[in-house]
Amino acid sequence: TEVTEKLEEVVMIWIKQIRQILVESEQIRREADDVGPSAELEYWKTRMSSFNSLLDEIKSTRVKKIISILQAARSKTLKQWKELDGNITIAANEAKDNVRYLYALDKFFGPLAKASPVTMMEHVPSLMYTVCMIYCTSPYYNTSERMTSLLLKITNQMINTCKMYLCEG
Question: What is the DSSP code string of the chain?
């Protein structure tokens, strides 16, 4: 029982740390008003990397051994652990899925940033079609908050490109 208690203490520390990571990941992001759509892709790539690292750690043999010892001891901390493990898996899947969908838009980010307004407009119909497809097919990206944020960043990039075009001309 002494070993079990020590292991439960360790797992409770992990649970507290993981909860903190999950809470921080759900907080509203603070971004500059003129940030473009590539920032959205970078955000989700970073988040995917973080949650995948956390998943790798949770699936490590060291952690699995501790969890199996606590399972044998019928520890009550395992209920919280399993819930958090599921939440991390969901967050990692969401980030991975969002990165995959945003990569479909990545080919438009260059023309949005470097083209003249006239050339940029040639890309808008296919860009909007791709955004529409993401909205219709993504299990995570199909909320009004996510779409509003993405469309705002796309608009910001178009405005910045037009400003640069006007200042150069």
Answer: -HHHHHHHHHHHHHHHHHHHHHHHHHSPPP--TT--HHHHHHHHHHHHHHHHHHHHHHTSHHHHHHHHHHHHTT-THHHHHHHHHHHHHHHHHHHHHHHHHHHHHHHHHHHHHHS-HHHHHHHHHHHHHHHHHHHHH-SSS-SHHHHHHHHHHHHHHHHHHHHHHHHH-
